[in-house]
């Protein structure tokens, strides 16, 4: 009998234009196709606002839930960490991290303060109440919990206190003001890197580090991957923000990989993750990677950075999905034998 995997997603086909929902539809379709190729029975479960999805999962009794519902309850991504909490309550196994890992790692203030206490380099960060006259500019204003670069634009970088105060006033009356609070973070103008991995513990596989190259449209303005640069393929910012696997200094890569492993362990992040860094020169002129964002439930689409890195390492999309599924199933000790046998079958070393 085929093992059943429920794809929990937020893709809803409608006339309403929303880039993140369009992406969720693509993730749903791509995952279901790959799961079929891998020999699983995939079922689509849409995360509706009435929580009927929870009953659907209970009725289906899946062997695994592929949790790609990364837009949060009611399409508020600050509530994304609540979704695995419900899955834990349903007593089902699922891909990705538990709620506490997602809550803590996505808190851009508390997580950086914690990582700094572990000796992991981070930008200086302040709550609005903590900012003071000694704060050095430039700084970037972000929401504390909301991710996907929502609310971030070129105007988010302030070069003096007047600009900062004006932008704080704007956010306090903005569309997300009731959902989250802004924080102030040191703006690092160095190269931006993304690192990631698949697997857990000794089976954790670090995949090639990517750097982002910014085109001519970023001349004279902050080089940041705002919402347009990440999501809107029709914009110049998107087209001129290119992932590059150009050689980085070996010691820089080794440091990034060290921090990735330490952060994954510190937060208990499971199965896969992506982490963003910025390089900052120290007094000796050496590049130091500072962690700026931890994504414990990154996008699994074919155009997402995590897959681009895995693709550079030699994965096709179906194999990549299978690697994530195997990592999640292996955590359920009752399935270790079946997971191992399934891997052998794929390699032609055993018969199903």
Protein model, in words:
The chain is α+β, with helices and mostly antiparallel strands and about 350 residues long. Among the domains are: about 5-95 and about 315-345, Rossmann fold; about 120-185, Dna Ligase, domain 1 (2-Layer Sandwich). It has twelve helices and twelve strands. It has helices at about 20-35, 50-60, 80-90, 100-105, 110-115, 160-170, 225-230, 235-240, 250-265, 305-310, 315-330, 335-345; strands spanning about 5-10, 40-45, 65, 125, 140-145, 155-160, 180-185, 190-200, 205-215, 240-245, 270-280, 285-295. The chain has a five-stranded antiparallel β-sheet with strand order 10-9-8-11-12, with helices on both faces. A four-stranded antiparallel β-sheet has the order 4-7-5-6, with helices on one face. The chain has a three-stranded parallel β-sheet with strand order 2-1-3, sandwiched between helices. A hairpin with a 6-residue loop joins strand 8 and strand 9 (about 205-215). Helix 1 (about 20-35) packs across helix 11. The protein is globular. The chain starts with a strand and ends in a 6-residue tail after the last helix.
Question: Strands, helices and their partners?
Answer:
Layout: E1 4-9, H1 19-37, E2 41-46, H2 52-60, E3 64-67, H3 82-89, H4 99-106, H5 110-117, E4 125-127, E5 139-143, E6 157-158, H6 161-172, E7 182-186, E8 192-198, E9 205-214, H7 227-231, H8 236-239, E10 241-244, H9 250-267, E11 272-281, E12 287-295, H10 305-312, H11 317-330, H12 336-346
Parallel strand pairs: 1-2, 1-3
Antiparallel strand pairs: 4-7, 5-6, 5-7, 8-9, 8-11, 9-10, 11-12
Helix pairs in contact: 1-11
